[in-house]
Amino acid sequence: MIQVAVTRTQAIARDVLLIELSAPGGQSLPGAAPGAHVDVHLPSGQIRQYSLTNAQGQVTQSCYQIAVARDANSRGGSEWIHDKLRLGSSLRISEPRNLFPLDVSAHKKVLFIGAGIGITPIYSMVNSIKSSPTDWTLMACARSASRLAFQEELSGLDEQRVHFHFDMDHGGPLDLQTLLSSGPWDALYACGPAGLLDALQDATRDWPAGSVHMERFKAQAQDNSENSSFELVLSSNGQSVHVEPEESPLEALERIGVDHPFACREGLCGTCEVEVVEGLPDHRDNVLDANDRAAGKRFIPCVSRCGGNRLVINL
Ligand code: FES
Q1: Which CATH number fits domain 109-215: 3.30.9.10, 3.40.50.620, 3.40.50.300, 3.40.50.80?
Q2: Residue of 99, 215, 248, 272 to test ligand 1 pocket, by largest number of atoms within 8 Å of CB
Q3: Which residues lie across from 274 on neighbouring strands?
């Protein structure tokens, strides 16, 4: 855990606040690569994940910057940040974690899509490759120009590569089929609202494995009506717990007094990940990629389940 102070707040778009976090005494902070996020621990006990907008792969950095959109359906997190967080406020954050890493080494033509506040990790990404030989294109979208963070900075990056789509100016949402077929693209990095990412997921279903990378802010809806119970076993001492259909493995662990780390409890942040020792996981998270899922060695107990009757985890 890192203690930081708020050293800058600035409205950078309608309902979007840029917040700079620095270590007390000007110490340096652990560096982070594009796509990384930090967990921000709010005084209410809520934990929220925010992408670092200034992660450039340095070993250390002087501050972290995040951009927080006021969420109309806020459960208190973004509202508190907008209404109560002040210059000089002290916050606890996690070390940066990267579940959305950028690797363009194997790709020739990369498409980035950042929609709404989903522009935040994408902004770090395009900044990090702006002078590389990679052929990239960014489509930055929002409901209106006033709602897009970093619009001015992006406009100044490369007008051949950076494109904007504003629903209110263009008579509706982005035409994904037209954009995708303007390629050929051999990699896609996208972050934005669930509807957009669901549509992209459908449209790129036939793309090669490892070419489509997305980060979600909200978990996809799950059908839990057919959940069955299973036995969860801790490899360290053989202790086991019966996970009921209506509870998550994480909740079952907590029920028997196991103090296991978590942050989002929605299968988004990766904080609760454990290693599988034996058994078949039924992955329901947005953390693991297709290769991890096929390997069956990593498990996200806040949302995932077991494909059989028994799962042994490395705890
Ligand atoms: S607590 Fe965030 S993925 Fe489980």
Answers
A1: 3.40.50.80
A2: 272
A3: 299
Quick one: pLDDT band at residue 210, thresholds 50, 70, 90? confident
From 218, 220, 264, the mutation candidate for ligand 1 (largest count of ligand atoms within 8 A of CB) is: 264
Taking the C-alpha atoms of residue 22 and residue 62, their distance in angstroms, rounded to an integer, is 7
300 lines ligand 1 (CB under 6 A): yes
- DSSP per-residue letters across 146-160: GG-TTHHHHHTT-TT
271 lines ligand 1 (CB under 6 A): yes
List the CATH code of the domain at 2-93.
Answer: 2.40.30.10
- The predicted-structure confidence for 80-126, as pLDDT tens digits, reads as follows 999 999 999 999 999 999 999 999 888 889 999 999 999 999 999 99
Cβ of 47 below 6 Å from ligand 1: no
- For the stretch 46-60, pLDDT in tens is 889 999 999 999 999
Pocket flag, ligand 1, residue 66 (CB < 6 Å): no
272 lines ligand 1 (CB under 6 A): yes
Q: Look up the pTM and report it.
A: 0.85
Which CATH number fits the domain 230-313, given the four candidates 3.40.50.2300, 3.10.20.30, 2.60.40.730, 3.40.50.720?
Answer: 3.10.20.30
CB 297 within 8 A of CB 260: no
Question: Could you give the angle at the alpha carbon of 257 between the alpha carbons of 253 and 258, nearest 5°?
Answer: 55
Model confidence at 24, pLDDT cuts 50, 70, 90, reads confident
